[in-house]
Amino acid sequence: MPDPMRCESASQKQWHQRQHQRRRLLTQLDNVSLVVSYRCHNAAGPQLKSAADVSWNFLTVFASRATSLSISHCIVRSLEWLNALKSLRSLSFHKCHIVCSDDEFHRFSKYLPNLKHFGAEEVTDAMLEELSLVESLRSLEMTNSPMLTNTGLRELAASQAGAHLRQLRIEGCNRLTLHGFEALAKNLLNLRRLKLRFVSDSFPRSTVLLMHVANLPWLHTLDLSRSFGLCDDGIHSISTISSLTSLNLEGCEDITDLCVMHLVSLPVLRHLDLFGCWRVTNAGLLSIGKMIELRSLSLGHC
């Protein structure tokens, strides 16, 4: 009869051998895109608590060559481990609670000086101030960030990082007002993609903001979905963006036939979303027929 203790020891030895082989293989990979998606309670050094019991030490060893890292469903108590990820170009936190101190976040730009994309929820003014120091940043996504204020937006607008930014997404940040958005629209002149969604009840009631947006010379994708208060004058400003190829107005309930008629003047518009724009009638739809470059159209509840 086999000895149970000896069998268990042999099994553990095989498990450790497999783990060693995996680590050796992973450390040889270049240009890794890494996804860490565990429902954890404590994503901090040294352990990432989960059923898989993945440690940050292991992560930093094999991810030292990673170029993309996406982390979800974690509580992040430390960012020091980022210092080992010098090749990282893209970093995203999805449904993560970042609870490290502002002082620690102030070292972020030193950890990842070559970062090109950053996305997170619960972004604060202090975090955005530090991100503004990362001059390589080209894409920024900030969602569900109730502590973010105009102060953070103005810091970004005045920075070199803001001047180089190509893509910006702000969604569900309800403390932001028109003044903060105006600062962005006046200064982020290299933007190609802009998404402002569920930002606040006051946006974008003033057409002044959209006049600034219309002056962005390289803008080709604009998403204003679920923005209440869009009026004819605001849409008229948008209709002057000659570079615009994609426009999302989904859920903008104040859009009318006259607004749609303004959009006919967009010379290269290829994608248009009017889902939920219930004020648009057949007269507005007839205007859409004049958009000769249009390739996709989303309609529903109109």
From TrEMBL:
<dbReference type="Pfam" id="PF25372">
    <property type="entry name" value="DUF7885"/>
</dbReference>
<dbReference type="GO" id="GO:0031146">
    <property type="term" value="P:SCF-dependent proteasomal ubiquitin-dependent protein catabolic process"/>
</dbReference>
<keyword id="KW-0418">Kinase</keyword>
<feature type="domain" description="F-box/LRR-repeat protein 15-like leucin rich repeat">
    <location>
        <begin position="218"/>
        <end position="288"/>
    </location>
</feature>
<dbReference type="InterPro" id="IPR057207">
    <property type="entry name" value="FBXL15_LRR"/>
</dbReference>
<dbReference type="InterPro" id="IPR006553">
    <property type="entry name" value="Leu-rich_rpt_Cys-con_subtyp"/>
</dbReference>
<dbReference type="GO" id="GO:0019005">
    <property type="term" value="C:SCF ubiquitin ligase complex"/>
</dbReference>
<keyword id="KW-0675">Receptor</keyword>
<keyword id="KW-0808">Transferase</keyword>
<dbReference type="GO" id="GO:0016301">
    <property type="term" value="F:kinase activity"/>
</dbReference>
<protein>
    <submittedName>
        <fullName>Receptor-type protein kinase, putative</fullName>
    </submittedName>
</protein>
<dbReference type="InterPro" id="IPR032675">
    <property type="entry name" value="LRR_dom_sf"/>
</dbReference>
